[in-house]
């Protein structure tokens, strides 16, 4: 509990907004990935997975995951 409290107080002011934007981007990419799977589109799946990995890394950097 104390660690979580410390993490929230140490975050920069813009991090909360950036985290929200990244989560929206993640939701969009997941929906796009779902469509690619339904279409059996390997290139689109690969692109989505790559974008999702970048989003994941940024969220980890912001300590939002």
Q: Can you describe what's shown?
A:
The chain has 65 residues and is mainly α. The chain has one domain (15-61). It contains three helices and no strands. The chain has helices at 2-10, 15-39, 42-61. Helix 2 packs antiparallel against helix 3 (42-61). The longest helix has 25 residues, at 15-39. The radius of gyration is 15 Å and the shape is elongated.
Short description:
The protein has 65 residues and is mainly alpha-helical.
Per DSSP E runs of 2 or more residues, the count of β-strands stands at 0
Beta-sheet strand percentage? under 5%
Biggest sheet statistics: none
Shape: elongated
Keywords:
65 residues, 3 helices
Give the arrangement of secondary structure elements.
Blueprint lengths: L1 H9 L4 H25 L2 H20 L4
């Amino acid at each position: 509990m104390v660690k979580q409290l410390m993490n929230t107080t140490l975050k920069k002011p813009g991090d909360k907004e950036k985290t929200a934007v990244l989560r929206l981007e993640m939701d969009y990419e997941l929906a796009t990935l779902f469509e690619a799977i339904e279409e059996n589109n390997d290139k689109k799946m690969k692109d989505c997975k790559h974008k999702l990995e970048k989003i994941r890394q940024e969220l980890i950097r912001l300590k939002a995951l």
